Amino acid sequence: MKINHYLLALLLLASGVVLGQTGAAKKTAANSTKPDPGSYDGTWWNRAPVRLIQTNLRETDALMNTDAYVQSMVDASATVVMLNVGGIVANYPTTLDYHFKNQFMKGGDLVGDLVTKLHAKGIKVIGRFDFSKINETYAQKKPEWLYVGTNGKHVHFNGQVHTCPNGGYQQEYGFEILKEAITKYPLDGIFFNMIGYTTTDYGGTYHGICQCDNCKKRFQTETGMTLPVKADMNDPVFRRYNTFKKTTADELFYKIGDYVKKLNPNLIVNTYADAGVDMIRDESSSWLTDEYEWNYSGTDHVKRVLGSYRDKTPSNVFIYFIAIPFRHTATSPNIGRVWLLGNMLNGAPLDFNVIGTLVNQDDRVFIPILNDLYGFHKKNETFFTNLKPVSHVGLIKGTEKEYRGMIKLLSEEHIMYDIIEPLTIGSKSAPRPLQDYDAVILGDLPNMSDQLTAQLDEYVQKGGKLLVTGFSSTNDETGKPLKTIRLKSLGVSPEYDLFPRTNSTYLQVSASDKKTLGADGFKDLDLIMLYSDFMKCKPSGSSQTYMKLVPAVRFGPPEKSYFTDNDITDSPGLISNSYGKGKTVFIPWRLGTHYEFKGNHGHRALFTAALQTVLQTPSSIKTNASPLIEMTHMSNRNDAFEWIGMINHSGQIGASLREPIPIQNTTIRFKPAKPVKQLKLARSDNNLKFTQSNGWVECVVPQVDDFEMLVCLYQ
Question: Gene3D superfamilies recorded for this chain (predicted)?
């Protein structure tokens, strides 16, 4: 037996196969030396292991036991706490005339007490401010600060009145509040809530475009136009107003950011904007709608920031309450877990929000899960430090439903991808140039500047592979319809005819189409549903066309539900083209929107055919994993390790979000940056057997419960 094992080992070595660790069920050694992850840029917040908890304190929380509050943060392994400082209510003894002091504070200093005690435990503090509203007492004295609806009235809600971004409160007086708080307390950061042009109240009532004198005057001065009263993208004045909103809001964000940094250069700025901030805020939250929860919300929000900015970090918060009108009960703990895992396993900060404190929640079901996930992150924070994604596909963010459908497709097919904000392409802050990606997906982005179209054409010309869907490049950057396809690399004439969305419309997949698209995915599939506006394009040059439009055929009664060859047009549903050294695939309809809508196998087959068969985009991970396992691949910038994250999305039936079902025996094959000495499963705390051959590592993950993290340590 011994000689046989010896001969087997020689044979394996001769063939280039290296055996990994044999103890698949052995626990990882507790005292094993941890690798040195290094630091990304020396900051505590960027590409660093942050565990943030936001407590939206109510006025009555001024009466809390602050020691219990601080201990709850320690128990939850928080590294950063965000709490209310000022704006709507001052939780400290303010001396300003127009800053409403918390009436429950009774002469104390809630902010001062909490900052001192949290800092004593090594926990940083971000101060929360909200300048979107002001107390009615002060609003009566300063009407020029207020938002005015299209009905000519101010907006009142629970004793607060909406303010306007162009009014004196947000433009001037808010800076006095910031100065008082920042000079009084050693805060670590500043957060602003409900920024920009708020047009709805907490009850969801829409009050229209602000008609205050400040808005009217500024819009007229900057544009020469009269302020619109109706939101209509077909109106050139409203399109100009949209640009006005962005430029004026960004100007205010930069102004606030500069002011804060002058008062204290070490403060970070966190809010719901990309301009003038360090941490870009977003929310994974539930709403009172009939739509199911967006499972990939965490992944969506953090990938967008990490794929677009090297000098900013995401701050995507799981909002605990089930909806704004029901702030006292929590959303499903299982979707909450998935959203937090979307943050964590993409290398982003953990972020959680409650109304009140962790101590006084009426619905505490999620708190043990919170402590578990934050505790796991703390235990393994070395592996969440100084990370970068190992992604070979870039997804440029387009229209919402198309974009979501693409995220679903990429995730279910286990294709490693980044999300890119269009405005950041080619900028100094972009983490990677487009040329770094094997392929780029442009999913229905109608509004494009000439610069962006030129950048994408250049990407293809230099050897890139570009998959384009929908009405990309048919408008200018403001949304003005140009009614031409401006991307030159697509192999079609600029002019097109619009075929509007119509029932009983299809794309026929012929036998010759299948030779290019791949016989496997279309073996038993000759028609694909089309329920989208469609561009009837004219191929140009040497481009190749596939699938044919079958428009509006009969669908009732059953006896009449058929079509003939005469119903089939020559309009292609997919065009491929060689351009310079690269290649494009153009699908002139909204493929991602279809998949978001119905999740149909035909649309999925077409997506994989376009990306992997026609464009020949290689896969960096090969796996038999269930489509319900979302995978991520991260590596350390200091070349100390890499890991593959796995999120179990099972357990959902319609709106019911139950516990995930354990998934067994997932084979994973990947190509690490360096030869591997050890694979370990961080969640189950086990070492794992593996083989290495020709630079590829292969292993079998025995079980994925809620999530798993396959850590790869190098030789």
Answer: 3.40.50.880, Glycosidases
Tokens 């040195």, located at residue:
36
Decide yes or no: CATH 3.60.9.10 for domain 391-619. Answer: no
Residues 227, 166: Cα–Cα separation, whole Å: 13
Phi/psi zone of residue 616: left (φ > 0), alpha (ψ -120 to 50 degrees), beta? left
What 8-state DSSP symbol labels residue 562? -
First to last CA, the chain: 30
Q: Is 603 within 8 Å of 611 (Cβ atoms)?
A: no
CA–CA separation, 457 vs 582, rounded Å?
9
- Measured from the Cβ of residue 467, the count of other Cβ atoms closer than 10 Å reads 25
191 contacts 278 by C-beta, under 8 angstroms: no
**Which helix (H) or strand (E) segment is 594 a member of?**
helix 591-598
CATH of 18-38+622-714, one of 2.60.40, 3.30.450, 2.30.40, 1.10.530: 2.60.40
Query: Could you read off the pLDDT of 554-612 as tens digits, one per residue?
Result: 999 999 999 999 999 999 999 999 999 999 999 999 999 999 999 999 999 999 999 99
Which DSSP string do the residues of 159-223 spell out, in sequence order? TEEEB-TTSHIIIIIHHHHHHHHHHHS--SEEEE-S-S---B-TT--B--S---HHHHHHHHHHH
Whole-number pLDDT of residue 27: 53
Query: Tell me: the pLDDT tens digits for 157-168?
Result: 999 999 999 999
User: Within 13 Å of residue 360, how many CA atoms lie on the same side as its CB?
Assistant: 17
Q: What is the per-residue pLDDT across 399-432, written as a single tens digit (0 to 9) for each?
A: 999 999 999 999 999 999 999 999 999 999 999 9
Taking the C-alpha atoms of residue 471 and residue 466, their distance in angstroms, rounded to an integer, is 15
Check if the beta carbon of residue 283 is closer than 8 Å to that of residue 329: no
Whether the Cβ atoms of residue 326 and residue 318 lie closer than 8 Å to each other: no
The sign of the dihedral angle between the CA atoms of 85, 90, 95, 97 is: positive
Residue recorded with tokens 């698209």: 517
